[in-house]
Predict the 3D structure of the following.
Amino acid sequence: MSAPSTDRATPTAGPTRPRLGAHTPGPLGGALRGARKVAEALATPLVPADYLDLFDPMRAGADLRGRIVEVRPETADAATVVIRPGRGWLGHVPGQYIRIGIDIDGVRHWRAYSLTHRADGSAAAGIPAGCIAITTKAIPEGKVSRHLVRHAAPGTLVMLDQATGDFTLPAPAPAKVLFLTAGSGITPVMGMLRNHLPELADVAHVHCAPTQQDVIFHRELAGHHEAGRLALSLNLDDVHGVLRLDRLDTLVPDWRERETWLCGPTALLDAAEKHWADAGVPDRLHIERFRPSVVEPGEGGTVTFGGSAVTVDADGSTPILDAGEEAGVIMPSGCRMGICFGCVLPMRSGAVRDLRTGEVTVHESDEPLPIQTCVNAVAGACEIDH
Amino acid sequence: MTLAPQRPAHGSTKPQGINPRLRVASDEPRPERPALKRSGKPNPAAHLTQQDIEGIGHELDALRQEVMDSRGERDAAYIRKVIKTQRYLEMGSRALLLFSGVKVKGFRPAWWLGTAGLSVAKILENMEIGHNVMHGQWDWMRDPKIHSTAWEWDNASPASQWKHSHNEIHHTFTNVLGRDNDLGYGILRVDEDQKWSLFYLFQPIWHVGNALLFEYSIAAYDLELGKYMATKHRMSDEQKAEFRKNADEVVTKIKRQATKDYLVHPALSAVTGSARTTLTANVVANLVRNLWTNTVIICGHFPPDISTFEKTSIDGETRGEWYLRQMLGSGNISGTKAMHVMTGNLSHQIEHHLFPDMPSNRYAEIAPRIRDLMQRHDLPYVTGSLWKQAGSVYVKVVQLSLPNKVEGRRRRDIVKLEMTKAWRKKKRKLGL
């Protein structure tokens, strides 16, 4: 569940795939380019990929997809999802995350999750060779995490993005390391441990969880601890109370000298940033931020039209289309009553309310969400791509 | 699926005020509905009060909400299954047609099977898939491949232009005389309340020609070619430039479509000596598709007992009144499940016009409730078999090619008078 911070650039699509014959020199290249043209002419108004996807949705060159191989429970409400990626998978650096698009009740939802498998593709921790793995904790209001933990079935096809993120270890690895994790914030760190633990000479790991039963990967971590590969300290809320950072002086007295990787809830990250700054070592702290909470829907708010760089205040009863037009933005429009879909624009962030039904739509992933501007009013600061 | 280009020229910076159709009721009293129309036909909604119409509006809003809230996995599975079936059917038929010239006992089995399969595939693609996806019926799935903004269909008219003339103009102004050009496509007189002119005298011919060339006439119609020809001289440079841009789009689309059907597929079949037969197969499949879609579509708004509306009657129209107009301005086709799929569920035209963005597989489910609502309010729910409905339109096209009957005048005389007038005008123009 460790999700990317919003300030980090997230890829909207994988690297552009090479087109057939585009880089092949000589007569072979010419023949390939000719074949591609014929295939495109045959497929129009679709593209050849639409037909190829019927036979092999995981082929190289297709939009990146994966098939769920197994959903393995880790704790009562966390599970590891093992996925066999399509042949276009480019691999990852331990600590990075991917975005997964999964259909729930017929609707596609995108979320980001840290990867926990071995980057060299070998089998480890029960994850078969060639598969990728994410671990997620079902949170009560988390539609996707609940679905993945409770309902996702092996065989399901999911959409994937290539791995991204800079919450990774440098090479060579620093001599002394502290991992500070809370809840499912353990996942990117587990990705690092499974790949880099032998290269790390001195590892301290402080992990926070509500109770001992909630500790994800407990057995694996305890095993490393017993074998002396890392020094694990658990901070359990029911025993120790929520972690106070001054407790670090006791748990890891030399924490100031350690390069620290931290992943957990926002409150912990904010407190730690201050703590490390106060200690004069802010550069030693590397953070993976949970996504700031999504917009809490309200009445009205600002709406920003990205392309035109126009921001306007709109009340909760004015369609975004009208608000844009009043501000002089040239808006696409049509029936102005919600039936023709001629006004649909992608929403980058925010929340809107359908004026016909009162239904609120909240933008909750990184994927732009197309909305009908003629029947939706602002319900919390919106950013519209236009 | 290529991304359909936007048509920014349709946008405007002029604030227009919030559309009254967003609300079921109106704060101001609404005008009375006259008992008789201009042509003397009775108005089927004359007996409804403003409260009745508000009630209908609230009931339909609630029904819409109920269905939209229950959209889910089975609906998504439905459209994906239809798309998959259509693509396999098209590929299979095209593969058969590679051998379309091969004769077995003096007859070409691959031609017959392949042509039939390709016709069905094209019909499915245009009707149950293309039309409905472009209506935004499946946008809720958030699948960028099955989305109204991205879909392009196997038809001469580019998606962007079709969406404008169909989704926006036709669905908003359904059956409003002078606003909804779908009412006869500007070449047919399909309602007594449409003014007769000499042009309509030959409309049985226009009608058959239109049906056979339907995809091209839709393209010309979406392009507003007729309007351009008639008003070119008073158009601004900007309007002309927009027309030319749209015309280029249409030409590009038609070229691509024709290259596929009439060049590349026949060329591939040349290996088995089947180039000519594959060409005829594609021509026939496109003709079948044209005839079928036209036959289905004329049943939607042209049969007798379906109402048309005066231009002024929709000033300040509320959502309740809009619903009422959609119900009275549309007609259904009865038939089997397969039949409904082959019409793209436009056999549930009434339900479709009430809720154009509702997934098409749901129309059959709500049809009994719509019928019940209309019967409770003593409104005609127009429906009948395809042959009955289409037949009635053909009869109407012939009948309405002549002017309406007027007390004390023979229709023959009206036609003669018009012809004389037209002749004189022509003579004056030629300076004779």
Residues 1-16 of chain A have pLDDT under 50 and may be disordered. The radius of gyration of chain A is 24 Å. The domain at 301-384 of chain A is CATH 3.10.20.30 (Ubiquitin-like (UB roll)).
